[in-house]
Amino acid sequence: MIQDKRTDPDFDLGSFDEPQRFKAVTRTNVAATPEWESLDPDLREGLEVVSAVLPFRTNKYVMEELIDWNAVPDDPIFRLTFPHRDMLSVEQFDRIKSLMAAGDKPQLDAAVREIQLELNPHPAGQMTHNVPTVNGEPVPGIQHKYDQTTLFFPAHGQTCHAYCTFCFRWAQFVGLDDMKFANKDVDQLAGYLREHPEITDVLFTGGDPMVMKSKIFARYIDRILEDPDLAHVQTIRIGTKSVAYWPQRFVTDADAEEMLDIFRRIIASGRTVAIMGHYSHPVELSTPIAQEAVRRIRGTGANIRMQSPLIRHVNDDPEIWTELWNTGVRLGCIPYYFFVERDTGARGYFETPLEQCHQIFAEAFQKVSGLGRTVRGPSMSAFPGKVHILGVRDVGGEKAFVLEYLQCRRGELVRRPFFAKFDPKATWFDMLEPLTDADKPFFPGYWPDAMDETPGTVPLTVGAAT
Fold first, then answer.
1. pLDDT at residue 126 tops 70
2. Which of 210, 140, 130, 150 is nearest to 177 (CA)?
3. Nearest to 444 by CA among 436, 454, 434
4. DSSP for 362-419, written as a single string
5. Residue, of 361 and 119, whose pLDDT is higher
6. What's the distance, CA 135 to chain centroid?
7. pLDDT at 174 (0 to 100)
8. How far is CA 457 from the centre of its chain?
9. Cα gap 147→385, rounded to integer Å
10. Considering only CA atoms, which of 244, 261, 271, 274 is closest in space to residue 300?
């Protein structure tokens, strides 16, 4: 059980007055860390090869405070941040290893790019169906999948304090400009919001918007707050892993108080600030500074919502989720989403059968109070929407998954239960088939073409009847 360190009489809040310097650890300098020598040569080789294809970045706080090096390689935060050889197929790994040994950089670069494209770099229609258009031209750095919520990718937030090895946005970080979402045009964001009064929520995402300096983030926020034509934007969401990987952002960083003041300013305008905190394991809430970051964020009037996918090797145990949600609730956070790992990147290393995902969720859910039961899951952020697994049942003598949409490109399908044929090996929605003809309208392969489009593109609002 993780304790609230602030109740410890030896816990000194004053100790946070001394700023801590952020020190990134990447494939170029990891060998200089004292922990590197403690790793088995096979683990070191795995990191060196896999990080040529998939991004690797951590920091000294994660390494010194969150990873138990006596438990490596099975320590969950080590698995969460350090690439492993099994994240690539044997063929892919051996190919990259041999090209690295040969020193053939052009061939290596070509092989890396080929493998990256094989790993489904932009799942769920991110590039093809989520990017809106204005006057026939795509709007860079914006995704608009559901009517009420728009995602904005600020150009200054195109990295993270540390990368998760499962990250479904890994393509943002591997130097492929044609795979990036980024926008630094504040006026373009405001213009798009002005043209879409149905938007109530703007989600700043990335990368991680909390890598930005406060004065830069303020430019985006103040543009929304100061425009009377944007009063329909009522919620500012911030998708961030900083609360887990660098809580100093809200406590000891030089502009930590300025960032908190931005939150206060949003609250004072009558809007809501929702920190979409990516917490994958309870150890991320175990340190005094992580708990102090929660206290300070909540002190501004903002709320913190907890979300993460189920990640094999990291949190595929119901006891871990029970502790995570109970700890979060005790600290004042709101359990929000329990996701299924997306079908991208090293999916074969992390994915878990859907039936097992539901079993883990259900067992953990049974052990939390009503305040922890705000969490929804297992949820797949698939092409058509957020597919919620309600369970497995016998339907007319046939075993089936019971599903519903929590969000959907076709709004009229939301919260209407439907069935899919049971498949014990299925790990993602596109591996499922309708149970009956009545279930076919819930599967995008049976939708009219127009309903596959993006909210800002077609002359239909999302959810309009066909």
1. no
2. 140
3. 434
4. HHHHTTS-GGGTT-EEEEEE-SSEEEEEEEEEEETTEEEEEEEEEEESSGGGBT--EE
5. 361
6. 31
7. 65
8. 26
9. 12
10. 261
**What is the CB neighbour count within 10 angstroms for residue 182?**
17
pLDDT score of 123: 62
pLDDT at residue 119 in the model: 82
The DSSP letter of residue 135 is T
Amino acid residing at 155: A
Which pLDDT tens digit goes with each residue over 372-389?
A: 999 999 999 999 999 999
In the β-sheet with 142-146, what is the strand arrangement from edge to edge? 142-146, 149-152, 201-204, 235-240, 272-278, 303-310, 334-340, 376-381, 385-395, 398-408, 418-421
Number of C-alpha atoms within 13 angstroms, CB side, residue 404? 10
- Find the range with the poorest average confidence among 113-117, 124-128, 196-200: 124-128
Tell the residue number behind the tokens 């909210």, with chain if given: 455
pLDDT band at 130 (very low <50, low <70, confident <90, very high): low
First to last CA, the chain: 51
Closest CA to 380 of 346, 405, 345: 405
Query: Length of the chain, please?
Result: 466
Report the pLDDT value the prediction gives residue 178, as an integer from 0 to 100.
57
Q: Chain-wide mean pLDDT for the chain?
A: 88
- Domain-wise residue ranges, the chain: 20-118
For residue 24, give the H/E element and its range. Answer: strand 24-26
Distance, CA of 406 to CA of 428 (rounded, Å): 16
Q: Identify whether the C-beta of residue 308 lies closer than 8 Å to the C-beta of residue 280.
A: yes
d(CA 428, CA 311): 14
What is the 3 state secondary structure string of 290-312? Answer: HHHHHHHHHHCCCEEEEEEEECC
Q: Which helix (H) or strand (E) holds 450?
A: none
φ/ψ of residue 23, rounded to 5: -130, 110
Amino acid in the structure at residue 314: V
Buried b (16+ CB within 10 A) or exposed e, 218-228: bebbeebbeee
Quote the CA–CA distance of 201 and 198 in Å, as a whole number: 9
pLDDT top residue among 49 and 346: 49
Amino acid symbol at 65: E
How confident is the model over 427-446, as pLDDT tens digits? 999 999 999 999 999 999 88
Q: What is the pLDDT of residues 261-288, one digit of tens each?
A: 999 999 999 999 999 999 999 999 999 9
